[in-house]
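Q: Hi! First time doing this. I have a protein sequence and I read that you can turn it into a structure. Is that right? Here it is:
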Amino acid sequence: EQTIGVNGVSANVLCKSHNSALSRLDTVAGRFFGRLSEAHQRVSVPGELFQNLVFAFNGHDLERWMLKCLCGYIASGTAAHNDVSIPKGIPPKYFLNVLFGLDTLPSTWGLYLLRDSEPASVNFAPLVNKNSPGGAVIVGCLVVICGLQFVLAMQPSPSNRRKDLLEGSLYRRAELVYRSAQGGREVTIILGWTEQ
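A: Yes, that's right. Below is the predicted 3D structure, encoded as structure tokens:
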């Protein structure tokens, strides 16, 4: 697991035109991080008065941003599992088709919300299937943002490790609600999902 700044999550492995085509995803992710941080701050300050706030995001864009980071890790050779480097490789064609909007994720693939934890930074760790016939294969990633743990699952049938990791998780959560202990004020972050 690596702790990194928001701008340091993706490696520069794309050509200028492809990077430009995906730059909107970086903007969406930056806004999402900002709103999560704002929600944490607003509800944790005792006595703070604020209007109820609602922010909306396209959930598929967040999945594609995480997939962009994951493809960058694969292509750059910077991914590691249990302190063992995973060799530089070419992201699977299906990952790239989803990334560029040419294909959609099947049911059960995509974004899961795990549980709250303490870190306030952004952590990124690849999920690896070590039992793949060709050796270790990256099948998703774990991203921790403002204490929320998200998993991007990119594998059709879960291995035992992924099954354990996703137990009790919420698939494509529609909203995150933060409530102030005093006064009942709320910050709601809505994630929009279209049926595929």
